[in-house]
């Protein structure tokens, strides 16, 4: 059993004991690693879908396992669909409106020999 597996098993055991008390609402034990996910999400200005993706991917090993990964995938798919939909509503840039590249290999030099 790896150190991570031992940590997860111990955390789940502690979580079960902790849930019998009143502390599970405000600070579940899987929050006790590094920065709180809520603080991270807010510091990056993420929206709801982005925040849930980070939350579920971050905690999957310590909370609901593969179910959390499936939830993250659902939010990723929703985010992709939302972005693609918003991009399809943008006006398409016309190629004729784009500046043309110069055919020269360097900066243009003045022909004045004045």
Domain count: the total is 2
- Beta-strand percent range: under 5%
**Number of DSSP strand runs:** 0
For the largest beta-sheet, the strand count, sense and barrel status come to: none
> Please, how many helices?
4
Segments where pLDDT lies below 50 for 5+ residues? 102-110
Strand-pairing-aware structural class? mainly alpha
Write down the oligomeric state. Answer: single chain
Question: Could you estimate the helical fraction of the residues in percent?
Answer: 40-55%
Rg (CA only): 26 Å
Mean pLDDT: 76
Q: Provide the succession of SSEs.
A: HHHH
Q: What is the rounded distance between the termini? A: 84 Å
Task: Identify the overall geometry.
Answer: elongated
In words, what does this structure look like?
With 114 residues, this protein is mostly helical. It has two domains: 1-33; 36-85, no CATH class. 53% of the residues lie in helices and 0% in strands. It contains four helices and no strands. Helix 3 runs antiparallel to helix 4 (66-88). The longest helix has 23 residues, at 66-88. The chain is elongated, with a radius of gyration of 26 Å.
